[in-house]
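Title: Comparing notes on inverse folding

I've been comparing how different people in this forum approach sequence design from structure. To keep things fair, I'm posting one structure and asking everyone to reply with a full sequence. Here's the target:
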């Protein structure tokens, strides 16, 4: 019985031509096609003998400094500003160029938030107002040293609003007690 159209006893396995020896490679496998002569290859890592596609004949090796300076840079200058260079409005920054956040600014913000969320307006709102105003004054006096102006402002304004709301609430409670006492 023959399968796949090959005569019995021939066929060399799957996909082989009829009459090929079983188990061996097909004829011509691994050999260049007729009329093809391979060129000798250079060993890996050897530079090419001619420059490819019009490349300049001499290239800088990797890591070598460029021959031209970047735009607007004087000779010998590096990219970017030097550490401790110009800061806010041309004033020099402290070492490292990073301003630290004023500690009283965060304290004012926390006190203002506590007075809002926990209802501790009498205990927290007045100190938030005072501490926030002092921190804001110190930050504006030393802008190159401190950051945190927005935290100080928010804490101060939360303290002001809660102080006013607390005073209105106290006046309202006193008036309600007077009216209630007069009615009875």
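Reply #1:
Here's my take.
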């Amino acid at each position: 019985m023959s399968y796949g159209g090959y005569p019995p006893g021939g066929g060399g396995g799957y996909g082989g031509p009829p009459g090929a020896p079983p188990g061996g490679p097909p004829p011509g496998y691994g050999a260049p096609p007729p009329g093809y002569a391979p060129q000798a290859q250079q060993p890996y890592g050897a530079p090419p003998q001619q420059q490819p596609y019009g490349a300049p004949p001499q290239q800088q090796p990797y890591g070598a400094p460029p021959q031209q300076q970047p735009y607007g840079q004087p000779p010998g200058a590096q990219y970017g500003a030097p550490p401790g260079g110009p800061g806010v409005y041309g004033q020099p920054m402290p070492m490292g160029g990073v301003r630290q956040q004023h500690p009283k600014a965060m304290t004012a913000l926390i006190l203002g938030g506590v007075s809002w969320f926990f209802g501790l307006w009498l205990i927290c709102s007045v100190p938030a107002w005072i501490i926030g105003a002092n921190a804001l004054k110190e930050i504006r006096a030393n802008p190159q040293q401190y950051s945190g102006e927005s935290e100080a402002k928010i804490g101060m304004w939360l303290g002001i609003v809660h102080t006013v709301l607390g005073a209105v609430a106290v006046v309202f409670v006193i008036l309600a007690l007077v009216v209630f006492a007069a009615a009875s």
